[in-house]
Every structure is written in C-alpha cells, then in structure tokens.
Amino acid sequence: MKELVKYIATALVDNPDEVSVHEVEGEQTSVIELRVAKGDLGKIIGKHGKTAQSIRTILSAASAKIGKRAVLEIIE
Amino acid sequence: MDSIEIEAKSVAEAITIACEELKTTHDNLTIEVLQEAPNKIFAFMSGRKARIRATLMPAKAETPPARTAAAADSAAAATRMQEVLETIARHIQPGASVEVRNNDDGIVMNIIGDGSGIFIGRQGQTLEALQYLINKIKVRYGADAVPVTVDSEAYRARHDESLANLAVKLGMKAKKRSGPVTTNLLNPAERRIIHLTLQKDAELTTWSKGEGVLKKVIIVPRQAEKSVNR
C-alpha cells in the first residue's frame, strides 16, 4: 500500500525527494500519511481534489484484494 | 556552488579546461566569458588570453525525469507510460500486465489482470482514476498532446454500447411523453456518446445541463423544445 502511494506521488510532484509516506496500521484499517513539499501540495490534491480522489480510488481497489481498508491522509 | 576562473588561449579551450577541473560536462556548466581572446596575430603580440568563469549547476533530480526530457519522442513516452501503469497495476494485483495499442483518438492502454474486474471498479471508477492519473503523469514525459485511454477487460466497448442503448431508450421515452427526459450525471466522454447517438434522430435534440465535470444530458423532442426551460 505504502509503496503504491509513494510511487504515484513521486511521479506527480516536482520534488520527488521530498515525498515521504508513513503507514499507521490498525486492525482493520491502515492510515497512510503522505507528506510532500509545500509547493507540490496542489499537484497531489488537484483541481477540485480530483487527483487526491483518484489516488484514494486506486488505493481502495488495491486494499480490497487484501480485505483491509486503507485511508489516505495528505498532511499539510 | 562551485565556480572557477580559467585563462586560456581561446574561449573554447578555456571551457575544456573548466570541464576537466570540475570533472563534468559542458551541459552542467554555466559559462561566463570575462574576456574574449583577441584574434591570433594580436594575441601573439599582446599576450592577452581568453578568460571565463565556469559555474557548476546544481545536479538535477534523476527520477522521475524532469520536464526537460519532454522533447523525447512520443513512442518512448508511451513505453515509459506503459511501465508506470504496469507498476501501479502490479501494486493492485501482482502479475497484471499492460498492452498498448494506438487508435484514432490516441493511445489505448489495456490492463490484463485475472478477469475479476478489479481494475474497473464500481461503474468504472477505478479505470477512470487510473486514466486520470496516467494522463497527469504523462505530462512529464512530453506526450501531453496524445490522450491516453485506460481499458481493462473491454470495459470501454461494453460501457459505450450500453450508453448508446440507453440513449436510444431515453429518446423513445422522450418522444412518447412529448417532453424532456434527463440522464444521470455523466462525464464528458459519456455525454459525447449520448449526443452522438441521438444526433442522427431528426426528431430529437439534446443538450447538457449542470455545473462542473459531471453534467446531465437533457433529451427533448423538437416540437416540445420551446416549452423547455434551458
């Protein structure tokens, strides 16, 4: 899960070195915290949050397989 | 930042020396000519030399390639995009692969999985998400003019067909009641199919209504057109 988010985020931003992903695992859900450079925040969120929405959709497809929910948190 | 001054017989020679000193190539240096070399005869007499200041530019991040690599031809970009999509797909389902083909509207990338429809999602939402992201990432690889369609298990063809059927069905309904019929919220590609399907029908007219990316299509018989508030 974590690698997936990291891969997508790195491909989207201008400062790939500043992408950091942290996974907080719970019993049923794991929260994936994504941090990017300040200037790249808009690239991750997208117009009307569409990019963020897309990442979340893909994340839920990936987690459906494992039978565990994953939530994406974009940390400002 | 590293910066050195070099004196040599000519500017070209000075640059070569600078490259050697800084152990880099000309591309990574900013060259500032402080003094041109006079032409040969006078140089011999005056002893004046060319002087430059060479400054090492900060190294660029290598992955993903920066926008300067954008000039790369679109075939290479397509291959690169295939790799990106394949990597994402394999995170969702290991063993998935992506095949690429060209059609009239651009590039179609087909994800081949185990046939469970995991890449399609409810009402194709996973497919839409993958397509949206790949088109965003694509801009970095210089193929931004070519739209990429992401498909899996021939979903696009099936979906297009069902939309065309829906359009015909709603068209009939509109004629029957001599009044407007409205679709659900549709994205631009979906609306296009509705409009195109009903364009052939001279008795009907269609338009979109709503704000944002998702809009409804309103289908109205021509004789009732004036009574409907747009």
Give Rg of chain A in angstroms: 12 Å
Q: What is the CATH architecture term of the largest domain in chain B?
A: 2-Layer Sandwich
Based on CA atoms alone, the radius of gyration of chain B comes out at 30 Å
In the CATH scheme, what's the topology name of the largest domain in chain B? Answer: GMP Synthetase, Chain A, domain 3
* Overall form of chain B: elongated
Structural features, described:
The complex is a heterodimer of chains A (76) and B (230). In chain A, strands 1-2-3 form a 3-stranded mixed sheet. Chain A has helices at residues 2-12, 41-45, 50-66, and strands at 20-25, 29-35, 69-75. With 76 residues, chain A is of the alpha+beta class. The longest helix of chain A has 17 residues, at 50-66. Chain A is globular and about 35 Å long. Chain B has 230 residues and is of the alpha+beta class. Chain B folds into 3 domains: 3-56, Defensin A-like (2-Layer Sandwich), CATH 3.30.30; 69-153, GMP Synthetase, Chain A, domain 3; 158-227, Ribosomal Protein S8, Chain: A, domain 1 (2-Layer Sandwich). Helix content of chain B is 38%, strand content 23%. In chain B, the strands form 3 sheets. A 3-stranded antiparallel sheet of chain B has the order 1-3-2, covered by helices on one side. In chain B, α5 (155-177) crosses α6 (188-199).
